[in-house]
Amino acid sequence: MLAVDLGATSVRVAAIDLAAPFPQVEVVHRWHHTPLEADDGHLRWDWPGIVSHVMAGLEAGLKAGPVSSIGVDGWGVDYGLLGDDDRLVDLPFSYRDTRSAGWEATAAGIGVERLYSATGIQLMGINTVFQLAHEQPERLDNAKRLLLLPDLLVHELTGFRAAEVSNMSTTGLMDARSRDWSDELIASINVPRDLFPRPVVAGTQAGTWRGVSVTVVGSHDTASAFLGAPAHQVARDPDVFVSAGSWVLVGTERAEPDTSDATRRLNFSNEAGALGGVRLLKNVVGFWVLEGCRSAWGDATVADLVAEAAAVTGPVPRFDAADHRFVSPTDMLDEVLAATALGSATPRAVVVRSVLESIVDGVARVIDELERVCREPMGRIVLVGGGARSELFVALLARRTGREVVVGSAEATAIGNAVVQGIALGRFADRADAGRWLDNLEVPT
């Protein structure tokens, strides 16, 4: 299987052999990218660059061996607008752009309780509902269809136009119970209803590319990562899932959405699972903070920065890892120094250690809140994503929470993407069957 994973800092195409005795991921192509400042001053994604590198990765995958299927996942909330000619009206905006800076007033106008009771989604300025509420009228006038970015890439490959529900659920415009677009909320932001494509579920066949089947997977990367985690062993208490990348997602799986007032006040998201159920989770700022500081430190790698931080002893100041100030600051290092009251001459190892400790504090706080909302104790932590490669991060997480940390794959998203393809093509009977294969996962050391 070829798994295309659109990350907010890198695009990856990975090959996963589902006939192998345990999950192994070979990244056949990787391209690092960042939002571009367009002529209008807004941050937009280099969509032609993303597409060209995905195509290069798929070509490399085809050359490496026979391919049974292709699946696409990516980050949530962002979208592209297609015109009459079925082409993009212009480059998609990045969620890190400031155009929805007045989102709190928009939320108040719609009604915070009304929004949450319908969608169950954490209120954040990056949500699609707030981006669309601040959309330029001329762009909407020229648009005939809206596609979330992973779905837009599937459209590039096959011409298929639809919205997979796990990613739909991140928009703040999907009814959490019907798993369809909320006509009422769409009307509240004055956006044409006919822009929105029909919902589809993971496992739907979208068409073919170069004669290879393209399967709709859990197109939100977190939905795929949940499916690629080694979390299927029998445990007394529910696992806490932590996906540590540009963002750190902390949550657990539930059968039904919880849109209670208590859950709303704690600002949890009820995101649709790719194969049913709900991911009750919350976003914490992640390694994007270190990515944002790298240029001020001579572009040292994140791995090198974390290694330096491991030598820091003694307490370091911490900041609120849920603070929206870190989404898209003008100068990330200045923002961190201001939040921690550290001076500009502070060694970078101390700053990095402060960032890591703050992220871990944020994770611990969300786990405490999960126990309050779910009214039951949470069990071990299942850690995947780039943070799973860091021994320091794992150690800090175990020490701060006092919990067992089960380390999964840094490429859990690609694995979960491939699992859905495998179920669609009959390699696995269902998720439980795939889980037995995942239990053989080689854990990085």
Outline the structure in words.
The chain is built from 17 helices and 18 strands. The chain has helices spanning 47-64, 103-110, 112-119, 128-133, 137-141, 149-158, 165-168, 183-188, 221-227, 261-265, 288-293, 302-309, 332-340, 348-374, 391-401, 412-424, 431-438, and strands at 2-6, 10-16, 25-32, 36-37, 43-44, 69-74, 79-82, 145-148, 163-164, 199-200, 205-209, 212-215, 240-244, 247-254, 269-272, 278-285, 381-384, 405-407. The longest helix has 27 residues, at 348-374. Strand 13 and strand 14 form a beta hairpin. It folds into two domains: 2-222, ATPase, nucleotide binding domain (Nucleotidyltransferase, domain 5); 231-407, Nucleotidyltransferase, domain 5. The two termini are 25 Å apart. The protein is globular, with a radius of gyration of 21 Å. It has 445 residues and is of the alpha/beta class.
